[in-house]
Design a protein that fits this description.
Number of helices: 21
Order of helices and strands: HHHHHHHHHHHHHHHHHHEEHHEEEHE
Structural class: mainly alpha
Number of strands: 6
Helix content: 55-70%
Amino acid sequence: MTIEAVAAADARMVSGSRPVPGSWRPIGVALSAWGVLFVIELVVSLWLAGGRLVFALDDAYIHLAVADQILAGGYGVNAGEFSSPSSSIIWPYLMALTEAMHLGPWGALLVSATAAAATIVTIMGLLERSGLFVAERAWFTVVISLLLIFIVSAVALPMTGLEHSLHVWATVTTLTGLAEAAQGRTPSRLQLAALVLLPLIRFEGAALACAALAALMLLGQRRAAAGCAAVIVAALLAYGARMHALGLPLLPSSVLLKARIVEAAYDRTTALGAITDNLIIALINPYGRRLLLLGLAVAVTAWWLRADRRALIVAGAVLAAIGGHVAFGQYDWFHRYEVYVIALAAVTWLWLAGRLRPQLDRSMSMALNVPMLLLLGFAAWPYMDAAWVTPTASRNIYEQQYQMGRFVRELYRRPVAVNDLGLVAYRNPNYVLDLWGLGSEQVRKARLAGQYGPAEMADLAVVRGVGLAMIYDRWFPRGVPASWTKVAVLHSPFVTVAAGDVAFYRTPAADAAELSRALDAFAADLPANVSLERLAR
């Protein structure tokens, strides 16, 4: 299909249909609805967390701790010790900027919420231009707008304080750039910047970035594709050089400790086996099934549009990104690992449906609305649940990790060991030993080599002068050092924390009387739903 034919189809797209009036503009509808929902989410979360901004996951504070070390000239969670616990290349540096402005956690929320709002504006603008919305179906505009708010998790995701909202924005903005190229126009600088940022925000973004670069080449945007590729390569080389200079691996410890393909390498099994496992997981995982159904919808709609070569190129790039996630990606972890590709698949499908409508008669076009809304509702459901649970999750983090962080900063003020970094490390001037390995290269290497157990834990505690370990017992099936004494257990509700009980172990390096006094003061000043059970003094 030529560019002139595409333009003619765009003109026919709204023939016989009235444009959406100003009061029903999709962007205004969606942005207004999101604003109300997000404010409610934030206010309830603040109220349940004692009036404090506490994210729904403790992971956000790892990035903030790394950001503080960046400002101090280091990289990691402890002064003078390099580690790479951040799951993003660029996010810690963005957080360093907000930390330099003394915004604290509010800086992360501001960036995430802005990205969520920008995502909604971008998507609704794209779909409005596609001709999907017309005045005769104002109800359809409203329902689609509400479903998309949840499909991109614009309500819950910013409350994690992590890079995922920015990743979703970069994903859909890259898609709009491809849609522009499909119309014969050069993508905007913002759209090209979003493409460049994809692998820098999340490593999963590399799949869409590569597919989008290939699509731009096929759509005749060779200069834009070459420029973006050059910037991406330069940025990744600069990051790799920085990590090498610090003696750190090219991939962050969170990827090395969690990715199935890395596990396969260390277990000396085949990469093909890891990919096969991922494919099986996609079939049985609720998020994986949603992704596969949306991918199928994209493929079927693209087949109907097979005469439109440019639309097929865009659809092919998106299907390649979906395939990349199915083969290598992960799901869930409080509804965030797959949200970017779910959003990509859903928005692409709607964009293709907008291009398809001119080829359908009115009755067929109306008949497609019901299955469309059903599949979108099915895709949105987990993220509706995430929005519902998020305030309780914030309270959960406040009742456990926030209290642990308060204890080590205000009462104990000595080196400690943990297995769940975040609030304990953030703004803590004392050393924090990560017994799980995200914030400790020595632990990470030992774990992946299968040479880590109670003896190594005891040695690390001695070297670092750690007098207290606060851990989840079930994370250490081989047990803890025999020289450690369990002195208390912190009991709290279980929502997004990894376990409801945190065991406090005294090591031989501790001053027993000092630790006992700190624990007494801690037990006397805990929230109503939290208790500290003393086991030894």
